[in-house]
Amino acid sequence: MAVKIRLLRMGKIRNPQYRIVVADSRTKRDGRAIEYVGIYQPKEDPSVIEVKSDRVQHWLSVGAQPSEAVQRILEKTGDWQKFKGEPAPPPLLVAPERADRKAAYEAEAKAAAGLAEAAPARPAKKAAKKAAAPADAAEKTEEQAGATSGEQV
């Protein structure tokens, strides 16, 4: 039996999410798999790649052939280099931790209630533009007044 390591497509239209699977080469793309060995989500920034390294190494050692896409993924994670005995690639990019929305909400609620001195999370852009506009207009009128008086003298 020829065994392949390939991608099994999941997700919605225009939002692909893949599982990295070990399957018989004769089964269809989204057919039954022997084992699930990882996930790949290309639409995230940076892409999410999680691979069970020990299981991939096992399947490669017993002769499973990765598809081209899976081989590229394994090269990024370093599993392909480990199998071939080559030096490891640079580490993958990791998404920064998301801000805790509940903590941010509580801080804003305290600030709104006047219980805590906190700066607003986002400055109001429109208010800043409106405040800057009258000051700019006043400077321009002063310059024009100075220029007209200078010309008359």
From TrEMBL:
<dbReference type="GO" id="GO:0003735">
    <property type="term" value="F:structural constituent of ribosome"/>
</dbReference>
<dbReference type="InterPro" id="IPR023803">
    <property type="entry name" value="Ribosomal_bS16_dom_sf"/>
</dbReference>
<feature type="region of interest" description="Disordered">
    <location>
        <begin position="107"/>
        <end position="153"/>
    </location>
</feature>
<keyword id="KW-0689">Ribosomal protein</keyword>
<dbReference type="Pfam" id="PF00886">
    <property type="entry name" value="Ribosomal_S16"/>
</dbReference>
<dbReference type="GO" id="GO:0006412">
    <property type="term" value="P:translation"/>
</dbReference>
<dbReference type="GO" id="GO:0015935">
    <property type="term" value="C:small ribosomal subunit"/>
</dbReference>
<protein>
    <recommendedName>
        <fullName>Small ribosomal subunit protein bS16</fullName>
    </recommendedName>
</protein>
<comment type="similarity">
    <text>Belongs to the bacterial ribosomal protein bS16 family.</text>
</comment>
<keyword id="KW-0687">Ribonucleoprotein</keyword>
<feature type="compositionally biased region" description="Low complexity">
    <location>
        <begin position="110"/>
        <end position="122"/>
    </location>
</feature>
<dbReference type="GO" id="GO:0005737">
    <property type="term" value="C:cytoplasm"/>
</dbReference>
<dbReference type="InterPro" id="IPR000307">
    <property type="entry name" value="Ribosomal_bS16"/>
</dbReference>
